[in-house]
Amino acid sequence: MSLVFYSLTDDPQPWREALARALPALPFHVWPQVPAPEAVHYTLVWKPPRGWHRQFPNLRAILSLGAGVDALLEDPDLPAVPITRLVDGGLARQMAEYALYAVLHFHRRMPEYARQQRARQWRILEPNAVEDSVVGVLGLGVLGAEAARLVAAAGFPVCGWSRTPRRIPGVDGLWGEDGLAALQRRARIVVNFLPLTPATRGLLDARFFSRLQPGACLVNVARGAHLVEADLLAALDGGHLGGAMLDVFAEEPLPPGHPFWTHPRVVLTPHVAGITLAAEAAAQVIQNLRRLEAGEPPQGVVDRSAGY
Questions:
Q1: Could you check whether the bond before residue 127 is cis, i.e. omega within 30 degrees of 0?
Q2: Whole-model pTM above 0.90?
């Protein structure tokens, strides 16, 4: 019995140390140093290549290092074993902070002040009224719900959309096609927290943007595949959208020649809205490994049919 760690972005050492303290009998291997693939029962991974899991014939479970599992589910050769995702692991607070910062950034007209600075213009702009900066949160799972609560606590009117009804204090819950249309009409700032599924892929497109009020802004912290990038650029260049803050992209790292790098109405960050920290997330992984070894169902199991 052993566990294999795979990630091109996460440091394995904090995970090795945390699991060694809690589960000293579980050998921890970092890919590609795997002495006996047939002895591997668990993998702890972030975006392994397609077909990667086929080498482990006795695999019992796949544990994701993040909340999103779309990259795993796109693998047609993925073994038929339970997949767990991080339900929080410290990500919710980080991503809620990012969302609140983005809301304040647009609410306080910071993109316009940045353009004035580049032009050496000294001009005071009239502040936006808080009641006019309605924030629409797409997706009210653990991450989106935490962001909606934090933004609402800061005094902003918040409406949140989900596939099925959700009740969050201080948040106007919307659902279904009618609910999405209502959010599009009302929101001045849209923050996307949706899981990536066949139904949500490409949701942020020209049709979606055309239903937003003029000057609305987009914040995407979910997945790059939610966004039709050419449609966003057209909406920004045409003046219908006022700005965008993007943390995720269709191709990562973002290619050097991509227009987002230099677009005056785009703020981008390199997929850092929520970073998995072993110190905060290891307890959840350890608990699931203990449950699996005891023959109990793990927590945070992915519904493959739903995509999350």
A1: no
A2: no
